[in-house]
Amino acid sequence: MTENKSLVLTTNNNQPIKQVSYQDMYAMKDTLEQLESWTKILEIVDNHFANRKLPLDKKKIVKEYYSISQIFGTFMNDYLTCIDRLETQLDQLMKKEKVRISQ
Fold first, then answer.
1. pLDDT, tens digit, 9 for 90 and up, residues 6-27
2. For residue 16, is the peptide bond before it cis, meaning its omega torsion is within 30 degrees of 0?
């Protein structure tokens, strides 16, 4: 009988190499791109709140509050969803099997 021995591939620091597919990497990349897509609109919201002219126009603040709050609420929901998805993807990557070679 011949035994199949398998060796775990390791890095120079003797850390095991995990099996990570391109599909896993692209899934994480898509999630990060979704978060990055918020950059421009968040810059607009930041500029809105950074404009601190005195005296404050209370009517303008009240008028724009609803739209800005809706943008922020949508962002927060999407951000939390993306962060949860990234955490799940990272957990799955950490649980992946180590790369083995058989001899």
1. 777 777 887 777 778 888 889 8
2. no
